[in-house]
Amino acid sequence: MNKKVLFVLTSHDELGNTGLKTGFWSEELAAPYYALADKGIDIVLASPKGGQPPIDPKSEDPSFQTETTKRMDKDTALLAKLKNTIPLTDIIMDDYDAVFYPGGHGPLWDLAESATSQQLIIEFYTAKKPVAFVCHAPGVLKDVKINGEYLVNGKNVTGFTNTEEEAVQLTNVVPFLVEDMLIKNGGYYSKIADWSPYAVVDGLLITGQNPASSEKVAEELLKLLA
């Protein structure tokens, strides 16, 4: 498939005021990356600051490793791409067929507030190109509006659940809860059992519930690209 997809990663590495580090969740980059790249999709990585985006140290814990994260750890080409992500301000939407946002807690701080990111999502969506988000990444849609309406308003969506946030004990650390925000902005929010793979497609908008959903989101994106 001769298509080009932009992946947008966080540049934020501080977990609120906890003194702990955060970033993007490694599985949420690795699983979709290979699901698309193995089908011949050209993938470009970008982030607000450019350069090496922070990886959430928790996602590198042995208990969270998957076949795709192990593959990423040995993939010198992908690791080189990661070291040199393109600054978001340099991205031109016309160069891509879709955009994908991996999660991790980092995006709740920087990408959710980024006017550049918001504008990019609007450009992709209005150009009738798929926009995909997994886990905490639907949080970046918080302030995205088209013609004065929230993009998620009236759309079927999912994202990291309040109970999943509670389970990782960060309910009082994150700037907002993804589930609450999606409902508040008029989304028709649905979820299944915590930590189970679940993706929702509404037209060009694809959302996934948690890290386990990242490959599912990529599969739905592939269908739209085809």
Automatic annotation (TrEMBL):
Keywords linked to the UniProt accession: Glutamine amidotransferase, Lyase, Stress response, Transferase
Assigned GO CC terms: cytoplasm
Protein origin, superkingdom: Bacteria
Location of the DJ-1/PfpI domain: 23-223
Gene Ontology biological-process entries: methylglyoxal catabolic process to D-lactate via S-lactoyl-glutathione
GO molecular function, one term: transferase activity
CDD domains cross-referenced by the UniProt entry: GATase1_Hsp31_like (cd03141)
Stated name of the protein: Type 1 glutamine amidotransferase domain-containing protein
Taxonomic source organism: Pedobacter kyonggii
SUPFAM superfamilies: Class I glutamine amidotransferase-like (SSF52317)
Pfam families found in the cross-reference section: DJ-1_PfpI
